[in-house]
Amino acid sequence: MPSKVSCLYLLTVVCWASALWYLSISRPTSTYVGHMSVPIRKTVKPPKNITFTNIRTRPLNPHAFEFVINEPKKCESDAPFLVILISTTHKEFDARQAIRETWGDESTFSDIRILTIFLLGRNTDNVLNQMVEQESQIFHDIVVENFIDSYHNLTLKTMMGMRWVATFCPKAQYVMKTDSDIFVNMDNLIYKLLKPTTKPRRRYFTGYVINGGPIRDMRSKWYMSRDLYPESKYPPFCSGTGYVFSADVADLIYKTSLHTRLLHLEDVYVGLCLRKLGIHPYQNSGFNHWKMAYSLCRYRRVITVHQISPEEMHRIWNDMSSKKHLRC
Ligand SMILES: *[C@@H]1O[C@H](CO)[C@@H](O)[C@H](O)[C@H]1NC(C)=O
Ligand SMILES: *[C@@H]1O[C@H](CO)[C@@H](O)[C@H](O)[C@H]1NC(C)=O
């Protein structure tokens, strides 16, 4: 019996002690906060935002892939003016080579440093993976992550490019993302649009802006289901055939994508990230996203042209390079 009494006594003492302790710490704390609230108001976050941050740090769309071929030092020594990310597939050996030898040639401009990087995933055919590995050892311009390379996974490829720039080349000034069947008029891109002598822009994004909505016809290449995207309009987005942005945007888009449900249409998806970031893409009709028959004067006015075969790429490049002195 005495043990029960002493237990009860002990409990009472503990309760009182904790109540007293609570009162003693809560009072000075509240006066402390009240006293300090004027100078520290700006840095103390309201609880609302703390919850918001907690939700945001748990990725909805973790980009949980690893680089299996990488060029981590390509950018190290001196920051490039422009990084060109080219979405490509394993079999397009000729297209990559044509780009290396024409507009993607990193040594074209003596005063402007450009970097050309080809983006790939993993192929289900291991022979192709090995061929790409060999190609990479020769040219050191290929970056691969271990997601399955397919048309449906194009968004992952673009996000890999954003991640690469953000991680290994954050000091670059501008980035272009384009495809392997695009001809790029580099003179126009560099000197007319980006203007190396002017102050670098921030939160800048440009290309051929499309204001459209989802196509619900299942036969379309651009089909989008209501489940994945219920809204009737897309935010303005730049055609994936070629868009250009200040390099700070790469990190912003990559981080935003971690909290944005994945969509397989990469250009639409980038548009969704831009909307979240409050970055509005500028329209530039020089980014031609259709095929356009070659003529010297016509090609001199554009920044990109779509659907160019490797042979055409060489032909156009040679013609334009050899006729630099001609006037239109
Ligand atoms: C949360 O923080 C962001 C900036 O980090 C700010 O724009 C927003 O207004 C804050 N929201 C609340 C509810 O305080
Ligand atoms: C996309 O990549 C992921 C990760 O490798 C893979 O699980 C998925 O099957 C791929 N999707 C398609 C449609 O190939």
Automatic annotation (TrEMBL):
Topology in the lipid bilayer: Single-pass type II membrane protein
SUPFAM superfamilies for the chain: Nucleotide-diphospho-sugar transferases
Coiled coil: none
Listed Pfam families: Galactosyl_T (PF01762)
GO aspect biological process, one term: lipid metabolic process
Gene3D superfamilies membership: 3.90.550.50
Keywords: Glycoprotein, Glycosyltransferase, Golgi apparatus, Lipid metabolism, Manganese, Membrane, Signal, Signal-anchor, Transferase, Transmembrane, Transmembrane helix
Top-level class of the enzyme under EC nomenclature: transferase
InterPro entries: Glyco_trans_31 (IPR002659), Nucleotide-diphossugar_trans (IPR029044)
Pathway noted in the entry: Protein modification; protein glycosylation
Keyword NADP: no
GO function term, MF aspect, one: N-acetyl-beta-D-glucosaminide beta-(1,3)-galactosyltransferase activity
Recorded GO CC terms: Golgi membrane
Location in or out of the cell: Golgi apparatus membrane
Cofactor: Mn(2+)
Its EC number(s): 2.4.1.-
Reaction equations catalysed: a beta-D-GlcNAc-(1->3)-beta-D-Gal-(1->4)-beta-D-Glc-(1<->1)-Cer(d18:1(4E)) + UDP-alpha-D-galactose = a beta-D-Gal-(1->3)-beta-D-GlcNAc-(1->3)-beta-D-Gal-(1->4)-beta-D-Glc-(1<->1')-Cer(d18:1(4E)) + UDP + H(+); an N-acetyl-beta-D-glucosaminyl derivative + UDP-alpha-D-galactose = a beta-D-galactosyl-(1->3)-N-acetyl-beta-D-glucosaminyl derivative + UDP + H(+)
Signal peptide residues on this chain, from the entry's feature table: 1-26
Family membership noted in the UniProt record: Belongs to the glycosyltransferase 31 family.
Protein name according to UniProt: Hexosyltransferase
Organism: Dicentrarchus labrax (European seabass)
